[in-house]
Amino acid sequence: MVRVPKLTPADAAAALRNPLAFIADRWTPDPRTVRRAALAALVMSVFIVVTGGAVRLTGSGLGCPTWPTCTDDSLTTTRAMGVHGVIEFGNRILTYVLCAAVGWAIVAARAEKPWRRSLTRLGWAQFWVVMGNAVLGGIVVLVGLNPYTVAAHFLLSTALITVATVMWQRTREGDAEPRPLVGGAVRQLVWVLVGASGLLIVAGTVVTGSGPHAGDSSEVARIPLDWEMIAKLHAVLAWIVVTLTFALWFVLKAVDAPEVPLSRTRELFLILLSQGVIGYVQYFTHLPEALVALHMLGSCLMWIATVRVLLSLRERPESLTHVPGPASEVSVGTSA
Fold first, then answer.
1. For 118-147, how does the pLDDT look when each residue is reduced to its tens digit (9 = 90+)?
2. Rounded to whole angstroms, how far apart are CA atoms 87 and 183?
């Protein structure tokens, strides 16, 4: 058996002063471990969006009627609150699971050798977005599921997915300066696609905020718009995004672009087509809960695919100037 080293008072003091540096001094994860940690954070970011949708679609949004406790007298759900309380409180518990996944990504990124400060910063950015969204989720409950705060809650979750996607991609790249793989005109087209995709997601939140799924069986305020009209506008935006994606694929083929941007664009196009089928079916079947939940998952996957298309337009090889020797590796481990 391997003897576990004794923890000296100096070690304990160092661990308390800077626990991440303490771990980094004693552990070097495999690059695959770092990639898997970043992917786990991304998967949990999507999962909590889907479970949040389940809270809304089951009418459990006020299953715990206050925040940060579940009731005025209980931190957790009670039997009298029934299944709605269990669903709402369960979604709150998942926030801690998400924090654990993000924390694992931060620790793995900090302990990697050589230390890539950019990865650690992306991990911490996810943590603070999670904290902000947890507070916003509490506000959503305290204001009785105001549709504007619910929309902001979803959009901040989309921001979290964006950062998590970027971190996952960065774990598969080096730290050299990015080199463009396509020309400026193609990059501009992709930015237009990203902007249109963002508008599509915002329009989707307006459809949800004005539609029939208020999130609770009680009287809940809705956005004072005709949800069917907004749904049709949402469909028009979806077709614009599909058209832009197809145009991008055609342009990439015309300029003989590398395979990675082409494959990412194909993936986005297929996701958009699947999302469109789900959207039309749910519209004509009067928004059944299962299809709405599937459409929310599709929204997350569509945005991830869009971000990956943007990131595929450049490459970042390993930086030859950032390979530390033994002395510099020690200094990296002891820095914050």
1. 999 999 999 999 999 999 999 999 999 999
2. 49
Query: At residue 84, what is the residue type?
Result: H
Nearest to 36 by CA among 101, 87, 96, 94: 101
Q: Distance (Å, rounded) from C-alpha 245 to C-alpha 251? A: 10
What confidence tens digit (pLDDT) does each residue in 261-288 have? 999 999 999 999 999 999 999 989 988 9
Strand-pairing partners, residue 180, are: 314
Convert 265-298 into a string of H (helix), E (strand) and C (coil).
Answer: HHHHHHHHHHHHHHHHHHHHCCCCHHHHHHHHHH
For the stretch 174-205, pLDDT in tens is: 888 899 999 999 999 999 999 999 999 999 99
**Tokens, residue 173:** 């790249």
Q: pTM for the complete prediction?
A: 0.89
Calpha distance 51→48 (Å, rounded): 5
